[in-house]
Amino acid sequence: MTYSKPLIDDIFGGIRPAARALDKAATTIQGWYDAGTIPQKHWNDVIKTAKEFDHHLTPDDFFPVKSPDASSFGYPFEKRHCLSIDDFHRPDIETLLSLGEHYLDLNVQKNPDRSVLKGKTLINVFFENSTRTEKSFELAGKRLGADVISMQIASSSVKKGETLLDTAATLNAMNPDILVVRHGSSGAPALLSQKVSCSVVNAGDGMHEHPTQALLDALTLRQAFDGQIDGLRIAICGDILHSRVARSNVKLLNMLGAEVRLVGPPTLLPTDADRWGVDIFHEMKTGLKGCDVVMMLRLQLERMSGAFVPSKREYFHFHGLDRTKLGYAKDGALVMHPGPMNRGVEISSDIADDPDISLITQQVETGVAMRMGILHALSEAQDRSKGANR
Ligand code: NCD
């Protein structure tokens, strides 16, 4: 159930009059229509302006009665898995982001709708350590009413020599609806997805992809830049070579019309990066010039055999983000980091903890909502395909 269009139409009489009254771009109001919801930061504005039109709104008026269908965003989401950004077209992405936005609003409600995944089982299968991604999926699943379990891989049969495919067969026998998989090898979630009958979400595979991180980053940017990613200049900096986050983000941000730059020492840039559709820089001073957003990446020491940088101290000196280097970017540029952070290696605490500059906490908060959106869309696609096969 969406509420933004009827609400805006009723009070202001459509997009253009609403845009005029609220002093916003028509595309912003259109974004509210598409999402079905109005972002919370605009509620006060809308309430105040509506008064001038003799409508007395309260925050309760901004809560949708029920979660929307993914198809209510105008495009039926039909993908079975979420493995790589390559699997999605722009309308899929728009649907997912709109659902994520919806859950950002819904998550501040006292009694959120918990029925979307009721009766479904989600299993988190993390072969690599994780704090925020695993917990974020756990919370997302629970908030949607699913039964959620997280496999303790350290104590599982994998350590006793079970192959990935045997593990897949075991998991499949538990009849889950969604498996969320993180694995140290690129392609492992995709392989698993061919051997199980449920949906598989890639929560990070080796140095390959981390599509849900890219989606949550895009949603964070949409929130920070009033819905507008198109035209933003974004620098992704640091250890690009070992980063699945960078690979997924480059694909998604390019698709959404951002101008993407990679900034890092030559040893930490993949040799094929010139074919990624990005501009490449080796120095922060030139790389950050005119950037709206600076996305820092962790130096992934666990994936390095041998020395890729002379020392952490020297790395910070040349490539770590501090006030001086941030000064090369646009005035008011915002900073992102997928976490976990190595403070004093790729980013100074001073920057990471400055709420006027850093979007890092928002990324974590947005992560839960975005994953709720992804789980919702996959579950609805499953139900639709079951219905079609009946
Ligand atoms: C990233 C990952 O695991 O790829 N973290 C995350 O998902 N929050 C980035 C990293 O480990 O540096």
Q: Segments where pLDDT lies below 50 for 5+ residues?
A: none
Query: How much strand?
Result: 5-15%
Assembly form of the protein: single chain
Helix content: 40-55%
What is the 3D form? globular
Radius of gyration of CA atoms, rounded to a whole number? 22 Å
- Please count the beta strands (DSSP E, at least 2 residues each): 9
How would you describe what is shown here?
The model has no long low-confidence stretch (mean pLDDT 91). The chain has helices spanning 4-12, 15-22, 26-35, 43-52, 90-106, 132-143, 164-173, 188-195, 211-224, 244-255, 284-287, 312-319, 323-326, 349-352, 360-389; strands spanning 121-126, 147-151, 178-183, 199-205, 233-237, 259-263, 279-281, 293-296, 334-336. It is of the alpha/beta class. It is 41% helix and 11% strand. The longest helix has 30 residues, at 360-389. α7 (164-173) packs across α8. The site of N-carbamoyl-L-aspartate has 11 residues, from α6 and α10. The site of N-carbamoyl-L-aspartate (NCD) has 11 residues, from α6 and α10.
Tags for this entry?
single chain, 390 residues, alpha/beta, 5-stranded parallel beta sheet, 4-stranded parallel beta sheet, 41% helix, binds N-carbamoyl-L-aspartate
